[in-house]
Structures are given as C-alpha cells and as structure tokens.
Amino acid sequence: MRTPHVILLLGAALMWAAGHAHAATPEAKLAYQQARDAAAATYKNARAQCGTVTGNPKDVCIAEAEAARVRAEEEARAKYEDTLDAYTRARMRIASSNYDLAKTRCASLTGNEKDVCKEQAKAALISAQADAKADQKTIEARNQARDDKLAAAYHVAMEKCDAFAGAAKDQCVSAAKAEFGK
After folding, report:
1. What is the pTM of this model?
2. Cβ(8)–Cβ(87) under 8 Å?
3. Beta-strand (E) ranges in the chain?
4. Which parts of the chain sit beneath pLDDT 70?
5. Are 177 and 155 in contact (CB under 8 A)?
6. Which of 31, 81, 120, 124 could form a disulfide with 86 if both were Cys (CB 3.0 to 4.6 A apart)?
C-alpha cells in the first residue's frame, strides 16, 4: 500500500474511531483553500518545466504533475470534509490519476510490452479501488460493532437498575444514561 493511501486510511480510521465527524471550522476551510492553492501553484510550476522536453517524456511529465496535483487536492479535501466517504473518494480519485499516469508511461512502449504495461496499470487501479472499498467497509463494520456493543452494555446497565425501586432506581437509570450518553 502506498504512503498516501496509508495516510488517508489512517485519517479515516482515526476520525471514525472517534465515532463522529466534526463540523468544518473556518481554520479548516482556510487550510483547505491554502492546500488547493499550493497544489495549483506546484502543478503550474511542474507543468512549465515539462515544456523543455518533447514527445512521450513530455506527456509523462505532464501526467506526473497532474497526478501530484490530484493527490494534494484530494488529500486536502478528505482532511477538510473529514468523513469516511471523503477519504474513500480521495483514494479512488488518486488511484484513477495514478492509472492515467501509468497509461501515459505505457504509450512509449510497443507490442506485447505495451499490452502488458497497460494490463499492469489496470490491475493496479483495480487493486487500489478494491482496497479503498474494503477498508471503508471494514471501518463501517467496526463502527457498527462498537455501537452494538455499547447498546448491549447499556441494556445490561438498565436491566441491573430493575433490581431497585424508587429513588435508588432513578439514580441507577440516571447514572446508566450518563455513562452511555443517552
């Protein structure tokens, strides 16, 4: 698994481990806009450097600049939106951008080498997309399991309160509700 994918996965897992998404703050929005601006500036500079070469190397240079821009923008957007869907969507778009880059690299080849290169690029795309989807489902399943366990523990606590009566039961119920955030 590539480092950017690991970063996105860890960000999604940590965010979901907390059990909730937080509202975007003005600071987060500013950081997102700055990251997008920086990605655009970096892309513009990288693209300008591609003007010194010709042919397929130029195409590869442009595709590399585009892939870097997409990666930076998608990572920033995922961090800004801070949802599991945003992290998954970012990983999917980064994989697609990497696929476009790989296809561009394959264009300079001929014959069977070119065919193999294209198939390897497609396999890498499918693998990255499958990993992103599987990771999302794993995180969702773990969150559901955590919620189910908390609900079961809450029901146990409430059942224990049934042994009491009057004020003691009211205190027990209040304590259980406070402990489980109900």
Report:
1. 0.76
2. yes
3. none
4. 1-23
5. no
6. 81
| Token duo for residue 74 | 């998608």
- Cα distance between residue 120 and residue 99, in whole Å: 10
Which residue matches tokens 């997008």?
36
How far from chain centre, in Å, is Cα 25?
19
Asked if residue 81 lies in contact with residue 24, where contact means CB atoms within 8 angstroms, the answer is: yes
CA distance 105 to 113: 12
Residue entry with tokens 């809450």: 154
Instruction: Indicate the DSSP class of residue 110.
Output: -
DSSP three-state, residue 96 = helix
Tell me how many helices (H) and strands (E) the chain has.
Answer: 6, 0
Nearest in space to 24 (alpha carbons), one of 94, 89, 76, 88? 76
